[in-house]
Amino acid sequence: MTLNILGVKLAAMFELVVTVLAVIELLVFMGVVSPGFSLANFAAHGWAGSDSFGLPAFSGIFAAIPFAIWFFLAIEGAAMAAEEAKDPTRTIPRAYISGILTLVVLAIGVMLMAGGAGDWRKLADINDPLPQAMKMIVGEHSNWMHMLVWIGLFGLIASFHGIILGYSRQFFALARAGYLPPSLAKLSRFQTPHRAIILGGVLGIAAIYSDGVINLQGMTLTAAMITMAVFGAIVMYIMSMLSLFKLRRSAPEMVRSFRAPGYPIVPGIALLLSVVCLLAMLWFNPVIGALFFAIMLAGYLYFLATKAQRDRAPQDSMLVGE
After folding, report:
1. 117 near 134, Cβ under 8 Å?
2. Which residues neighbour 26 within 8 Å (Cβ) at sequence distance 6 or greater?
């Protein structure tokens, strides 16, 4: 949090360094594990415990949706840095495309190498699957193991740091537009939204210390929050696709720095898949889903109650369509 308060340039440089180290760690993991990789190991028992596809496999496929989405969650936070980028119309689309391609390569590589290192069922219910997968290949006392554990911390730091950068700018933008208390839109002498950064940090720390106290649907609080975050992401994807179709019809001449490729087929597929994912999430997580929509309802009631606050907020040309 301190780095983000001291300035976005310092925070961005730190984020870049730890992210590069985290990517190197994953590449090293794939390189070390690859000699022991076996496609037979990866495919064994892959269909609900069976080696052949059957109807029981569908439940496992849909239950895995939150974890598949989690691979790519929060990449949309890149847009939160648009006001602090020198040329956002060029750099933000490039950041999105390069980030998604990087994630696709790393996600597929890690999934294949970890799942094919041995009996993947031994990795199914543990919190450290990558070190355990590497242990199957190089043994417990290998120097590669120590390297993976220590450098792996940079991946955790990069993830936390990116989320801090994203949520703070989100709080700031919403507060400036009148959707959140205006005090969160205040800037420090370093021109950073320090109050928004601190608020999110306090909420995060409170969630960590509440982990063993609150239990939702048999999950710890942090596990339930991951599922709830996926609910939020899916709803955002659906709203984004609907907004895209709406704007293409109502404002066809609007200046756009980036045009969605394959319109309307690709956005249509994205919308359909998002709806399927949402239904699957609700089926497997009814309690957390109900809580999520209760929070959404509370947010809507807050929205209705704060109309005067938004009327007093400075007008944003992007929001009023100018």
Report:
1. yes
2. 106, 109, 110, 155
Quote the number of domains for the chain: 2
Are 310 and 179 contacting, i.e. CB atoms less than 8 angstroms apart?
yes
Q: Dig out the tokens for 273 from the structure.
A: 């898949």
- CA pair distance 87, 123, nearest whole angstrom: 44
Q: 283: closest CA among 67, 46, 64?
A: 64
Quote the crossing angle between the two packed helices 221-250 and 265-284, to the nearest 10°. Answer: 150
Domain end call among 175, 209, 243: 209
pTM of the model: 0.79
Domain that holds residue 80: 1-37+71-209
The DSSP bridge pattern shows strands 215-216 and 219-220 to be antiparallel
The tens digit of pLDDT for each residue in 39-86 reads 888 888 877 777 778 787 888 888 777 778 877 777 777 777 777 777
Q: Tens digit of pLDDT for each residue in 270-283?
A: 999 999 889 988 98
* φ, ψ of residue 50 in degrees (nearest 5): -105, 160
Residue 280, CA distances (Å) to 5, 152, 228, 283 in order? 39, 32, 13, 5
Q: Residue 275 domain-assigned?
A: yes
Task: Kindly state whether residues 28 and 115 are assigned to the same domain.
Answer: yes
Residue 65 included in any domain: no
Spatial distance between the Cα atoms of 95 and 76, rounded to a whole number of angstroms: 10
Q: Taking a C-beta distance cutoff of 8 angstroms, is the pair 287, 216 a contact?
A: yes
Measured CA to CA, the distance from residue 300 to residue 226 in angstroms comes to 22
Specify whether 106 is located in the same domain as 205: yes
Rounded to whole angstroms, the Cα distance separating 314 from 305 reads 18
Other C-beta atoms within 10 Å of 285: how many?
A: 22
161 DSSP 8-state letter: H
Q: At what angle do helices 286-305 and 221-250 cross, to 10 degrees?
A: 60
Cα 100 from Cα 115, distance rounded (Å)? 22
Same domain, 202 and 227: no
